[in-house]
Amino acid sequence: MTTIAFVRHGNTAWNIEKRAQGHSHNPLNATGFKQAEAIGKRLAKEEWDVLISSDLLRARQTAEIIASYVGMPIIYDQRIREISRGQIEGTIEEERVKRWGKDWGTLDLGEETEQQLRARGVAFVKEVLEKYKGKRVLVVTHGKFLIQTLHELCPETTDCNDLVHNCSVTILKQVGTQLDYVLYNCTAHLQQEELTH
Question: Which of 37, 82, 89, 112 is catalytic?
Fold first, then answer.
């Protein structure tokens, strides 16, 4: 049985400001570093075989802290980056409306589509299941990437409009050819640390 635990990166200033982060290399904020410490302590209580992370800075910083607790090297993979936001990267809604008008969402501003995002997410998961059969794999990634990939993998039990919290853990296990949730969007370790907001 293969197990994949997905961790969303810790909080950033752009999360708070509601800026489109996309492929930007923006760092964790003070809360994000504390959240990463909390998830690291939680994951250290379990056995893991592999640690894979997005190469974007906020995920990388989260993974480095987790690695310091679980004691394993990090494998970086660009396929698990956040959705690319094209020209709107780094902007908030008010700035987008001012620049492109209230219907900016209908324009081609170079954003990656959800279909493209899901395709690379599913391809990544399929490769992990094949390459690390029977292993316990940790994956540090991003919110939109994660919820869209989960929706594609488990459409009947995943709302693609859900919010996956910063430094939450979601665990999937493979039984036969099926994937199912063991845990979804769990922040118990953050609640204990009062780091959920």
Answer: 82
